[in-house]
Amino acid sequence: MTEILAIGSYSPVDQAALDTMPGAQCAGSLAEAADLPEATRAQVRAIAFKGHHAFDGTVMDRFPSLALIANYGVGYDAINVADAQARGVAVTNTPDVLNDDVADLAVGMLIAQCRRLVQGDHHARSGAWAAGQDFPLNRKMSGGRVGILGLGRIGREIADRLAAFKMEIHYWSRREKDTPGWQHHADPVALAGAVDFLVVALVGGPETESMVSGAVLDALGPKGVLVNISRGSTVDEGALLDRLEEGRLGGAALDVFRSEPDFDRRFAALDNVVLQPHQGSGTHVTRAAMGQLQRDNIAAFMAGKPLLTQVA
Ligand code: NAP
Question: What is the rounded CA–CA span in Å between residue 6 and residue 34?
Fold first, then answer.
């Protein structure tokens, strides 16, 4: 009897663990899951979901006994929460266990952008250094002014790390937080105008759609650097590309894009950007912890116990 359906592409470790859960079956994608035989779909009570394709009410309705969607990842913007709530389906995610890795990557990307680590590596490997060519001087990051757009769990970890780099911490969140010495700004434009570097750590989804607008990028200015580890949807990518190409923004470091993995190739032609393949949480330890938390939520649900990390 298939009571648990795992949707998505899981690591061998997670796949092996899912396979040991009583009543578990796997499907590679939402489309594949929706096409399972009706008798199988009717038995499914919990879905372990991994992916970024829209999971809305139309898909949920294919599983009439569904009561839980356990998302792999803290960002659950692919799941239509209103549709889930309307159908009495609970949603869980995997917060906190990935904070360190995502924050580490954000800081690493900012350093890479300022100190041109990718170009420096190429300069050494290519033999240019050995041939006597100087590597151009670049930009100091420590001691600069950084703005965190979205001081949530990950934003806070990024700010803590950058504070250790002697940086002045500014932020925007919907409410001022208890962070003495850090400056809260009234809106994202005011934040961008006050800093050298802007790091985006917002949730994705309709509420934060293009919050990093052309106006925010203009406030950041021709020496400003944007770092995005949140979701591609939070940035007006057309406005960002125009400004990067025209020198109206200093640079960017991006782990997420509107279209993934087939991101806008205009980015690849730019020398003032650092590009990463959405790998913020991508370490062995953290991905294993995310999978464990996803399964723990399902196990709690199946045992009739309270969910560990319910978001809706
Ligand atoms: P979080 O603790 O919930 O923080 C989310 C931030 O978004 C908070 O600052 C929150 O504002 C803000 N926010 C939420 N709803 C908003 C709204 N309606 N309007 C404006 N701001 C809103 O989440 P987290 O654990 O830090 O994760 C943040 C995001 O990082 C995830 O949602 C995910 O998309 C992304 N992420 C990316 C990777 C990667 O691989 N690159 C990995 C993990 C997560 P307040 O401070 O005002 O509450």
Answer: 12
